[in-house]
Amino acid sequence: MSQMHQVSKAIRSTLVLWVITAFIYPLFMLISGQVAFSYQANGSLIKNSQGVIIGSALIGQPFASEKYFWSRPSSTSYSTADPKKDEAGVLKTGVSGASNLAPSNPALLERIKGKDDPDPTKKIEGDLNHLKTAGMQPTADLVYTSGSSLDPHITPEGAKVQIARVAKARGVEPKQLEPLIAQNTDGRFLGIFGEPGVNVLKLNLALDQIRE
Question: Which pLDDT score, from 0 to 100, does residue 121 have?
Answer without folding.
Answer: 61
